[in-house]
Amino acid sequence: MQLSVTGIIRRFGPVAALGGVDLDVAEGEFLTILGPSGSGKTTLLKAIAGFEIPDEGAVRLGGQDVTLAPPRSREVGMVFQNYALFPHMSVAQNIAFPLEMRRRPRAEVRERVAEALRLVELDSFGDRLPRQLSGGQQQRVALARAIVFNPRLLLLDEPFGALDRKLRESLQLEVRRLQRRLKLTTLFITHDQEEALIMSDRIAVMDKGRIQQIGLPGELYARPASRFVADFLGESNLLEGRARNGVAELAGFGAVPLPPAQPDGKVTLLLRPEALRIGASTAALPCRAEAVVLDTVFLGQSAKLRLQLDGGTEMLARLPLRPSDPPPPPEGSRVALGFAPEDLHVVPQG
Ligand SMILES: Nc1ncnc2c1ncn2[C@@H]1O[C@H](COP(=O)(O)OP(=O)(O)OP(=O)(O)O)[C@@H](O)[C@H]1O
């Protein structure tokens, strides 16, 4: 169901955990709130779930104002990082709990629990206790419990935080598949930018109690609206320079052409590490410099290089590697670097 948050403010003493948040999540959309620790993500989720009453602003679900409604009445499913299953109840009893609370008839409970178990692929685990399951399985039970009553909205607060990488990745895909299939409006919280890029229809980047930018993952990555977003989402080279007559003077690279209509004055330019090329392939590029390799990290399908330009500026490059490619240049070697000016993004000042 459509969720709309308008002008939410929540203060704790002198701290404004939320400093005026506006957010619309469309029906069936998977929206991620991405932000560093302390940016206000959990406080926002609590205000939406009904565990925090905001000082100002409103929360609407399907057009209905629920700002002051008790959590139970909102019909919202939630999954947290620490599974929060009832340890003395079986898996099936855990999943049945929200239905029992709603006093659903026994036959319906049985049917819905079986269906939820099937959806999270734990059909044969109904009689086990939570402690007899792995972390990933427990989190799937928590998910089944959150969706078994057909919630109007699903809230996920760092649900994979305690899991190892492989398990995280398979659960990310599983949750996404399930969410699409059930067309569940979902708000997902993470501080992991890679997870946000993998899972989301849209991402809202939060900092200091405010949404700094909201958009499609590709849009935020390619055209961040501020230095903070450029830095927080993905790896970045942020180059400072001065623009004059459509050209910026950049240390090491010389005059670099800027996009049309760029006013004169200070500019911050974003160049993603994968846009920086090194070695022979730079010969035909209009923006070139020389650098020393400070270190090289081999990552399997790519290598990450930290480079230092002659003027002292450090840059990051990411080189895609095929199995037949020669090894990347080692530490201490001198290399040519270059990029195409169309790969630059001018980061708005402010
Ligand atoms: N009950 C509270 N009392 C006082 N301050 C609080 C309370 N809850 C949150 N805060 C403060 O509000 C700010 C936002 O906290 P919040 O938990 O929403 O951040 P977060 O983005 O979810 O962080 P994390 O990723 O670490 O969970 C922080 O500065 C926090 O210290």
SSE pattern? EEEHEEEHHHEHEHEEHHEEEEEEEEEE
What's the helix count? 8
Structural class: alpha+beta
Q: Main β-sheet: number of strands, strand sense, barrel status?
A: 6 strands, mixed
What fraction of the residues are assigned to beta strands by DSSP? 25-35%
Based on CA inertia axes, which overall geometry fits? globular
Bound molecules: adenosine-5'-triphosphate
Measured between the Cα atoms of the first and last residue, the distance is 36 Å
In the CATH scheme, what's the topology name of the largest domain? Rossmann fold
Radius of gyration: 24 Å
Number of domains: 2
Low-confidence stretches: none
CATH architecture of the largest domain: 3-Layer(aba) Sandwich
Keywords: ATP-binding, Cell membrane, Membrane, Nucleotide-binding, Translocase, Transport
InterPro entries: AAA+_ATPase (IPR003593), ABC_SmlMolc_Importer (IPR050093), ABC_transporter-like_ATP-bd (IPR003439), ABC_transporter-like_CS (IPR017871), Mo/tungstate-bd_C_term_dom (IPR008995), P-loop_NTPase (IPR027417), PotA-like (IPR005893), Transp-assoc_OB_typ2 (IPR013611)
Region (Disordered): 321-340
GO molecular function: ABC-type polyamine transporter activity; ATP binding; ATP hydrolysis activity
Considering the chains and any ligands shown, give keywords for the structure.
binds adenosine-5'-triphosphate, P-loop_NTPase, six-stranded mixed β-sheet, 350 residues, 35% strand, five-stranded antiparallel β-sheet, 8 helices, alpha+beta, 24% helix, ATP binding, single chain, globular, EC 7.6.2.11
